TrEMBL record:
Domain PRISE-like Rossmann-fold, first and last residues per copy: 82-304
Any one Pfam family match given in the protein's UniProt record, by short name: PRISE
Protein's recorded name: Nucleoside-diphosphate-sugar epimerase
Superkingdom of source: Bacteria
Amino acid sequence: MADRTPAATLVLGATGISGAAVARASRAVGSEVWGVSRRTPHQEGVQHVPADLLDDGSVQAALSPLRPDTVHITTWVRRPTEAENIEVNSAIVRRALDAVGPGGSVRHVALMTGLKHYLGPFEAYAQGAVPDTPFHEDEPRLDAPNFYYAQEDALFEAAARYGFTWSVHRSHTVIGHAVGNAMNMALTIAVAASIARETDRPLVFPGSQQQWNGLTDVTDADVLGEQMVWAASTPAAADQAFNVVNGDVFRWRWMWPRIADWFGVAWEGWDGQDRPFEQQMAGAAQQWSAIAERHGLAEADVDRLASWWHSDSDLGRPMEVVTDMARSRAAGFTVHRSSWDSFTAQFERYRRERLIP
């Protein structure tokens, strides 16, 4: 069977870093794109489908009339406990697919998850026994509750019920563009560097010794979007899970000084103790408000831009984290990016859009 272009694509979470990238990649191959979100996205060529994915009635009313060829699920909701994460996020998958599945048009569903598949949930993140790196897709599930597993199970059940193929896409830290996103390391670092420059202090690495010295990788949002679209149109990718990262590796002790130099600030690396952003940025709200007023920035609320807790979680891991890409390479996905270019391209865009000075 030859590769094919999806005629109509439904993207859940279209306003997020990943969903916006999937929408761009889908438009690039000629698909009609419907974007599901509560707020109206400013995305050229995306037809907005307003829906509250936490509400059965809202989802049925919005999605059941649609006849998409492919569905991309890139959204999730964080709750205080993993039990709540499991309940809410598996229900999002089940609710959406039970709305569009009975129409009979869906041929493929792609689900974005991440490396917590290998590292464990927020409550036990990178604790206990985890697989050796690089992470491979055929590692057995950890013996711990995990909402990624619950999302996968909901996907598998719907695929069996409605007769579509599926793919799962396990990204690392996603480098992209979105305001108000809970997991945005590039913008978080850009805000921290901008505060450092404006207050004449160094950009201090917030993570662990292992992350400072060890190898790591990241996922450009556009690489993720292209892989999800590729899987939806490639028979060899059907019913498989894929890791998705840029394809290069780096050490933060190499990357951090370069980022600091890009912003024109001094830097400090790991110096014997972890110095997380949440401690460093205790007064960031007031500082950013003043910086935004001084420079005429588009967003004065630092919490809409920086996710200190998430960057601390990623950069504070007590291990190096690298990801194997052999499975998708063997199936024909060869897209790659320079991680340095991923960061700097976003920094430049943030400045163009007046998110940072």
